[in-house]
Amino acid sequence: MKETLNDKKIEELEQIFVENGYPKFRAKQVFRQIHVNKVNDFNLMTDLPNDLRNKLSENYSIDRVRKLEVFESKIDQTKKYLLELDDKNIIEAVFMQYNDRKTICISSQVGCRMACKFCASTKNGLQRNMTASELIEEVYELERLNGNINNIVIMGIGEPLDNFSNIKRFLEIITDEKGRNLSHRSITLSTSGLCDKIYELANSNLDVNLAVSLHYAIDSKRQKFMPIAKKYSIKELIKACDYYLDKTKRRVSYEYVVIDGVNNTDEDLDSLTKLLKGKNAHINLIPLNPIKEFDHGKTKKKIINEFRDKLTKNGINATIRYSMGEDINASCGQLRNNYAR
Ligand code: SAH
Q1: Domains plus CATH for the chain?
Q2: Is 69 considered catalytic here?
Q3: 86 and 63 in contact (C-beta within 8 Å)?
Q4: What is the pLDDT of residues 88-107, one digit of tens each?
Q5: Which atom belonging to ligand 1 lies closest to the Cα atom of 162?
């Protein structure tokens, strides 16, 4: 396997160049070609001499993420991309546009091992982690197709904190001022709640926005639908989130998929209120998007509005996140990676 170069920091590239006897200043050029011009083929880096281009192509690589297919929503401007990796694995990413803000929702793993009952991405388990090189190319491929984006949400297939070291490197590179220079606050990472990794992320100075898939405020219920809840109690999870807020000064948002009759009863409301009352927290209520393996229908507007109003009355900050790209299965929890080929 050739070593990848698009996941290297400038200093690391410089070291590689010096060690191989290439002129050190060329490293900066390569870094700019990769992260500013988004060139992913050393042969196309026309500001480099031919022999260096050849040497780089022979000895190094960039993991590719190629567009295989795109599905365009007729309801909104959402596009769902099927992206193929070098080993023919397929992942999905979603492009959304709202006014002039462009947001992409990216996958972090090929499959997922979290086994949340209501989520399509986990139905075939985890195939493998995505590399940092692939994560970077996933973003750049979407930018080549749609122009530069404003926001990234890591809410596609996979559990990002289950692929922590690659996600960390990806974030470090994509926010590098000399390269793509995305601001930390334009990136949101969503997790099903891997507490030890939330602490690690808080201590990493990456300062991205954190979204936590809470969905249930009662442990016994959460455990029934989200196996990770057997490892970490809700109390431990909130403690980790409080630490994140304290350390990063970023308000944590809690995702709550409203499943009528399951997690919107008075008992749920009371527990959720007690849990978050007085905290600098925000709840994102999400309608359940139906998947064939989970026997519950789409949450009605009236039901989700009622739950929001009750939370607001209790002094809890909650908004509804309406789905985009519903007609192309691009909504939360609907991405899957088992396209037959
Ligand atoms: N593994 C991370 C990232 C996936 S994000 C996480 O769990 O947060 C995808 C978001 O969509 C999560 O909040 C997830 O719980 C939610 N989701 C999963 N299945 C869903 C469904 N069927 N309808 C609506 N949201 C769903």
Answers
A1: 3-61 (1.10.150.530), 65-328 (3.20.20.70)
A2: no
A3: yes
A4: 999 999 999 988 899 999 99
A5: 1
